[in-house]
Amino acid sequence: MNQEISCNRRHVLATVGGSLAFNCGFAPLAALAEDEQQDDSLVGTIKSLFDPNEKTKSGKVLPKAYLNSAREVVKTLRESLKEDPNDMAKFRRVADAAKEAIREYLGSWRGQQSVVNEESYVVIEKAIRSLASFYSKVGPSAPLPEQVKSEILSNLDTADEFL
Fold it and tell me: Alpha-carbon distance 14 to 5, whole Å?
């Protein structure tokens, strides 16, 4: 009896669905295809949340953790270089955030084979080395000259293009 009912339901659904498609000009099929495309984009979004890798602006696929860490270094270091050194409290706060981001970045990614040859890694490391070299020569509280500042900002801009 259950088999007869399910067969009758299928028959009714097929008949009604067919007549709807015939009478409505296949509009439901187009809507169904559109829903499937939305589902695909939703599935893609969900998959990207759990994917450990991410595509960069330049099209390379790199670890998300690296990209997040590198972006944080670029952002905080850029902010600290643009901050007014006369407002010491704000400058220290921004500089400390940059220092922490650099420590985390170097602690996690220094020498990692998965990123060591990437353009972004090379230029970020160059920017960090320029900053470290300057402060090791003149001391930690010396004001940064415009030439050094612009060189580091240029390196950060280049790194940002590859992230």
Answer: 14
Task: Quote the CA–CA distance of 130 and 127 in Å, as a whole number.
Answer: 5
User: Are the CB atoms for 106 and 128 separated by under 8 Å?
Assistant: yes
Mean pLDDT per 10-residue section of the chain, whose length is 163 residues: 50 49 49 49 66 85 95 97 86 92 96 94 97 92 91 96 93
The per-residue pLDDT for 63 is: 94
Angle CA 60–66–67, to nearest 5: 60
CB-based contacts of 14, cutoff 8 Å, min separation 6: none
Identity of the amino acid at 10: R
Q: Tell me the three state secondary structure of residue 61.
A: strand
pLDDT at 10 (0 to 100): 52
Q: What are phi and psi of 17, to 5 degrees?
A: -60, -40
| Rounded-to-integer distance, Cα 37 and Cα 143, Å | 55
